[in-house]
Amino acid sequence: MQVDESVAGTTAEIDESLYSRQLYVLGHEAMKRMSASNVLIVGLKGLGVEIAKNVALAGVKSLTLHDPEPAAWADLSSQFFLHPEDVGKPRDQVTAPRVAELNAYTPVHIHQSPRYVAVLSKEWPSGVR
């Protein structure tokens, strides 16, 4: 993990009342590094949205979501931020504001470039999705 030492080395304030359990387990240094991290999550089906929720609650510097695929009825059973009225809308567009509500200290962005899809589809073996 690459961390910008200029940020991680500062005395960035950590809200101890919000992150008390994490501080106890991880310590201040790990929390400083985490609070200096920018995270990208590609894919917001059941597992991706669970990871997005946990990363947002962990207190990273920023969280970027990418999943332009339209939500389907089948997604409602595993993606707990989706509602029936979201079917047909891009998953990242409807999920981002709901993930952002979890932690005011973690800004949530949407990455709209198809570049990641092209790169990832070249890397994955055929037949794997």
Report on the structure:
- The chain has a three-stranded parallel beta sheet.
- The protein has two domains: 1-36, no CATH class; 40-129, Ubiquitin-activating enzyme E1, inactive adenylation domain, subdomain 1 (FAD/NAD(P)-binding domain).
- The chain is built from six helices and three strands, in the order αααβαβαβα.
- It has helices at 5-8, 20-26, 28-35, 46-58, 91-100, 115-123, and strands at 38-42, 62-66, 108-110.
- α5 (91-100) links the parallel β2 and β3.
- By secondary structure, the chain is an alpha/beta fold.
Short description:
InterPro entries: ThiF/MoeB/HesA (IPR045886), ThiF_NAD_FAD-bd (IPR000594), Ubiquitin-activating_enz (IPR035985). The protein is an alpha/beta fold and 129 residues long.
Number of domains: 2
What is the radius of gyration?
Answer: 16 Å
Class inferred from helices and paired strands: alpha/beta
Q: Rough shape?
A: globular
Count of strand segments: 3
Give the CATH architecture of the largest domain.
Answer: 3-Layer(bba) Sandwich
What is the string of SSEs from the N terminus onward?
HHHEHEHEH
InterPro entries: ThiF/MoeB/HesA, ThiF_NAD_FAD-bd, Ubiquitin-activating_enz
Protein name: THIF-type NAD/FAD binding fold domain-containing protein
Organism: Neurospora tetraspora
GO molecular function: SUMO activating enzyme activity
